[in-house]
Amino acid sequence: MPDPIRYSCQTIDEEDVAAVAEVLRSDFLTQGPATRRFEQAVADYVGTGHGVAVSNGTAALHLLAQALGLGPGKLLWTSPNSFVASANAGRYLGADVDFVDIDPATGSIDPDALEARLAAGGRKPDLLIAVHFAGHSLGFERIAELCEAHGIPLVEDAAHALGASYADRPDMKIGAHPKSRAATFSFHPLKSITTAEGGMIVTGDAALAAELAMLRSHGVTKDPALLERADEGAFYYEQQALGFNYRISDLQAALGTSQMARIDDFMEARRARARRYRDLLADLPLDLPPATDASSWHLYVVRLDPARTDVTRRAVFDALRADRIEAHVHYIPIHTQPYYRDLGFAAGDFPQAELYYERCLSLPIYPRMTDAEQDRVVAALAAALGR
Ligand SMILES: *Cc1c(COP(=O)(O)O)cnc(C)c1O
Prior knowledge:
There is one protein chain. By secondary structure, the chain is α/β, with parallel strands linked by helices. The chain has helices at about 15-25, 35-45, 55-65, 85-90, 110-120, 140-150, 205-215, 250-260, 265-280, 315-320, 340, 350-360, 370-385; strands spanning about 5, 50-55, 75-80, 95-100, 125-130, 155, 165, 170-175, 185, 200-205, 220, 240, 285, 300-305, 325, 360-365. The protein is about 35% helix and about 15% strand. Strand 7 (about 165) and strand 8 (about 170-175) form a beta hairpin. Pyridoxal-5'-phosphate binds near residues 85, 159, 186 and 188.
């Protein structure tokens, strides 16, 4: 039996292990200097002012949606082709959630669909969460312009996109766009860098960052400048909002800072794999993802082209699994999940996302992938497609 090839896996080295061990021997396991260093490392890399580290990417979305005023009677729009967390961020706060259909060429919200929805009138969203699917950002510039023109606050779920640049602004890292209020990252093991579990919001807005930092810690502050009453001693604190315990630990933050030192190597390795897939898959009956070096290539998603093959995605997926190649599928459209159906959504609501789901397959891609592993994936895929 050949070794399994997972669709993604983390890259941990001895320096990462040493960085975590150093925190274990220090005075602070949480809320210490390692968290501040990690926030600074990510904000500096992205090229924006502030980073607020939290316990995971979902918490980052939840806090950001709360800080930007989502709540009962408010409306969130996001992409149906995403992980459920992108939409759940609104539901946690009692807001209504709706979706904008995708462009199958990018997997992200279709700017034409957004423009048509806005031109049709009706209820406008109070927040739009754009998702940089797979780490691509094609189309985002127009989404940002439309949101600005219609006065819609815009943020980015950049869980896939740490290390990517904007397709239309190659000198700007994702997370630094002037028309976006903030962006969120996830440090789950399969994302660009990992802290095991972890997330961060980056923003150029100092007041927003301060509010997020307070919400991350129960809505409590000890900052003398913010206290509403005279302090009653050095112990004194005030809870000024309903926050959470969404902190990251210093062990995780130290791992994250250590990983950030190698992010450019991770990105180069992923981009080289994507370029090589493009060459190796050219003759198969597949629609390939966009040819872009701006992407972080979190996922390499091919789509079966029904005009060129009768083989189903299910058959290809099962054939790869039989060869111990653990391809994956991103994503089951959020609005078709039972929870969202119960809210009134139905199959057919967002046809491009549904068609995408029927045909898509995420091939293995990760920094440590070897040529031999990639060749095995391509050979198994070709065999499954009868080529
Ligand atoms: C991974 C992911 C999240 C959630 O991140 P966690 O750290 O797992 O909570 C949110 N949105 C997208 C698009 C993701 O891929």
